[in-house]
Amino acid sequence: MSIPSAPTLISHTTAFVREKFLHEGSGHDWAHIERVWRTTQALARQTPGADTTIAELGALLHDIADWKFHGGDEEAGPRAARTWLLDQGVGEEVIQPVETIIREISFKGLGVPTPMSTLEGALVQDADRLDAIGAIGVARAFAYGGHKGRLLHDPAVPPVQHESFESYKKNDSPTINHFYEKLLHLRERLNTPAAKRVAEGRQRFMEEFLTQFLREWEGEDVG
Fold first, then answer.
1. C-alpha to C-alpha distance for 119 and 51, rounded to whole angstroms
2. Which of 2, 182, 188, 202 is the most exposed, having the fewest neighbouring CB atoms within 10 Å of its CB?
3. Per-residue pLDDT reduced to its tens digit, 30-39
4. What sequence ranges are listed for the domain HD (predicted)?
5. What is the maximum span of the chain, computed from C-alpha positions, in angstroms?
């Protein structure tokens, strides 16, 4: 088997992932992956020294087999990425760093640090986290909550600061709690200056949304 050029590999991977996730309904669909991919490209242009092929493959494959949809199996994603890349004739010098990105990228609870060990991983993690905040982040949070059958909000269920990944995996709290357990904290965990700049406006939108949501929930805006 001949080894594909980087543009061919990216093209084939894009088509593969698009076909697999085009109609996914939990907010982890092709549109999400494409935004993460495009944002990774933009961040890479502002980050000298990044291997753009590794970063783009990591972005395209970061949700290829998310643990959330595979019984909590944290290795499902790296395995699926390895299988695809081997089928394309790719060597370990590409497979291993892509696996590492997928293995390290996820948020695992407020009490669990999730540093990325490579520059390319930092770019993909930032791109993924930017897509979890702002207007798109709000929409995706409720799409996922609906997919899982979760309540919008329950004032009797307080947010939890998960101190372990196992605790975070078991979380099934209302969607509004997800903002306080994860989304509002992503800005402070971004890696690159470019991502942090983008996050400022998206953070403000989320905070304003939550203020308005809670006012309406309590009927404060109707007197």
1. 8
2. 2
3. 999 999 999 9
4. 29-133
5. 71
